[in-house]
Amino acid sequence: MTSTGSADVVVCGAGVGGLAAAHALGALGLRVLVVEKQARIPRVPKGEVLQPGALKILDTWGVSKLLESRGAVRLSALVACGAGARMSLDYTQLPDETNWLLAADHESILGALVDSLPDNVTLRRGVSVRGTVRDSAGRVAGLAVREAGAERDLRAPLVVAADGVSSRLRRAAGIDADRKDYPHRLVALDIHGVPGAAAEVTAHVTDRGLRMRYPLPGDRIRLYVQAEPDELRGMDHEALQRWGDGLIAELPELAQFEEQLRTSLAGRQLLPVARFVASGLSAPGMALVGEAAHSVHPMAAQGMNSAIYDAHALATCLAERSPSSGGSDVDSALREYQQRRLPDLVTIGKISHNAARMLTDLTWVGRTLGRRALRNTGTNQRLSFTVMHNLAGLGLHPLSPLDRLCQLGLLPDPLARRRPRWA
């Protein structure tokens, strides 16, 4: 077994979290090595909508403009509606230069991150990570990997774990992640040949759950359909077509592209949905970012964006402490990263979970409260602006217990027609 130590940072995983960490730490002048087991960028229906806060960070790396030059679609609003209730979050009302969402395929986002990596960042694919390397004091000091049939150690003062929801490195560090699965799944449909789609994320609440859609580059639409875990199991072509009939019956507007929707059914993907926030974000010598650290319901478009914020926060904490200066400085920065970032992730997790319950809970009580909250939030400028600002990643202003009562219509809000004071 050989050992190498030519990097200041080794990042495990070339997803959005890992590549964002490579950008942020590379911008500090650090030598960063990213290792990824997959030989090529995967094509998966996830992480396709970027929030304004994340776009501001990506713009400093040249990624936002690259995405738009490759056809990414600007979206102006997030709309949720159902059974007479409606909430429209108009992002153009945000007091910020970047007051829009950006939609692109996940592989396009990954590709833009890779193509804009600084010269001091190296990406090596086909590298399988076996575990961590530790020094005599038990501190993480690198990764044990297998590459091109050979075992070796990649040593560095800092390891970034960005190896996904089942993170081997998180488990090796003894950091807990209490994963909770939602009782439903999401069916992802990639619908081609739909020009002129509304430039917004639209979430429809029906008696059978959430139906969410938004445009993608190339005259395409992404449609997510809430489904029971076994709802599509064993369906033949005719059964799938009948299932499609049910979608159109629920949402007649889908009939505008009925033929394209039916064609997309054969390529459907069924996705599990879970949530968790790790009990910690660091161990001596190692930081967690992205899905290694947290997972949320995708309907609030927070998962990928939170990974970018993780990377930015980690780099901010490390900016005045070079990994090459010694382990104690690095570990001090990692503790600061955890103290700053973990409370925000807990808040984001609650915001995303509450939003998901409002739109996906199929119990009678859940549907009644969800639609009431949707309607009252939509008619309350103070609450809707706060929700939008939180989702946009421009600063967290959690709703108070009194705000929750206003959402449910149990308490009048004398400030409902105004923006919040902090705005």
Describe what you observe in this structure.
This protein has 423 residues and is α/β, with parallel strands linked by helices. Helix content is 35%, strand content 27%. It contains twelve helices and 21 strands. The protein has helices at 16-26, 52-60, 63-69, 106-115, 168-172, 237-250, 258-264, 303-318, 327-360, 364-378, 381-392, 401-407, and strands at 2-4, 9-12, 32-36, 49-50, 73-75, 77-82, 85-90, 101-103, 121-125, 127-134, 140-147, 150-155, 158-161, 180-192, 200-206, 209-216, 220-227, 269-277, 282-283, 286-288, 294-295. Strand 6 (77-82) and strand 7 form a beta hairpin. The chain is globular.
Distance between the termini: 58 Å
Structural class: alpha/beta
Low-confidence stretches: none
What is the subunit organization of this protein?
Answer: single chain
Mean pLDDT: 93
Give a quick account of the main beta sheet: strands, pairing sense, barrel closure: 8 strands, mixed
Strand content: 25-35%
Our count of helices gives 12
User: Helix coverage percent of residues?
Assistant: 25-40%
Rg, rounded, reads 22 Å
Q: What is the tally of beta strands?
A: 21
State the shape. Answer: globular
List the helices and strands and how they pair.
Elements: E1 2-4, E2 9-12, H1 16-26, E3 32-36, E4 49-50, H2 52-60, H3 63-69, E5 73-75, E6 77-82, E7 85-90, E8 101-103, H4 106-115, E9 121-125, E10 127-134, E11 140-147, E12 150-155, E13 158-161, H5 168-172, E14 180-192, E15 200-206, E16 209-216, E17 220-227, H6 237-250, H7 258-264, E18 269-277, E19 282-283, E20 286-288, E21 294-295, H8 303-318, H9 327-360, H10 364-378, H11 381-392, H12 401-407
Parallel strand pairs: 1-12, 2-3, 2-13, 3-9, 6-15, 13-20
Antiparallel strand pairs: 4-8, 5-8, 6-7, 10-11, 11-12, 14-17, 14-18, 15-16, 16-17, 18-21, 19-20
Helix pairs in contact: 1-4, 1-8, 2-8, 3-4, 8-9, 9-10
